[in-house]
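re: the backbone from monday

yeah here it is again, tokenized this time
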């Protein structure tokens, strides 16, 4: 797939992009439309490096929509999911495409995979998953982690609170500290990447984060 083909797909899903923009406009958790847009752009990079045939419409639609039904963003996940399903059915997509988009979104998250509740994703979903996880790494990942930590009332750092290995989603959602989240989740994502691009870019972003942490600890001790 080339850039011209991707641009054609992006043009076809303008209403889907607008739906995401509308539903994520007031998010304060770091999962707003700007995040969805960067995930879509990362997925495009992965698509350009993918030799296998994959439905780019499904990939990009899932990228833009994946947080519109996330429980960190909406109070009524079931209702939001039904609204999204009804909307997708008006977009000229096949029933298979609608089902695949919803399946990807439902099985995308770290917590669902980590606690053994996700189903295996098709290649389209693996691309969306890698793009979303890359957004949790590097400079952007650190900024979003701090932003979400403040939003959730988590302390920035406490040397007495060590990173945890969580045993349930409820425990994981309680969190510990912003800095601990890097170890409790973000660094784990690197080894969970599916695609060659995701693995390489994940390692690059992890290296940046490790350098940042060295500087952070040095400045904290001062």
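seq for it, each position gets an aa:
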């Amino acid at each position: 797939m080339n850039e011209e083909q991707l641009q054609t797909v992006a043009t076809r899903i303008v209403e889907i992009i607008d739906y995401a923009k509308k539903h994520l406009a007031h998010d304060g958790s770091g999962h707003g439309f700007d995040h969805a847009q960067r995930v879509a752009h990362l997925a495009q990079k992965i698509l350009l490096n993918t030799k296998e045939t994959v439905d780019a419409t499904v990939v990009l639609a899932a990228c833009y929509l994946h947080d519109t039904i996330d429980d960190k963003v909406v109070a009524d996940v079931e209702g939001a999911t039904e609204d999204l399903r009804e909307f997708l059915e008006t977009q000229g997509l096949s029933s298979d495409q609608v089902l695949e988009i919803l399946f990807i979104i439902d099985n995308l998250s770290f917590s669902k995979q980590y606690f053994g509740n996700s189903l295996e994703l098709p290649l389209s979903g693996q691309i969306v998953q890698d793009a979303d996880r890359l957004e949790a790494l590097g400079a952007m990942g650190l900024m979003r982690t701090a932003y979400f930590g403040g939003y959730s009332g988590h302390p920035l750092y406490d040397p007495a609170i060590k990173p945890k290995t969580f045993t349930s989603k409820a425990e994981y959602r309680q969190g510990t500290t912003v800095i601990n989240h890097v170890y409790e989740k973000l660094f784990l994502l690197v080894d969970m990447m599916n695609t060659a691009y995701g693995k390489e870019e994940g390692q690059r972003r992890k290296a940046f984060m490790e350098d940042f942490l060295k500087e952070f600890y040095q400045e904290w001790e001062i």
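The domain at 3-221 is CATH 1.10.3210.50 (Hypothetical protein af1432). DSSP finds twelve helices and no strands in the chain.
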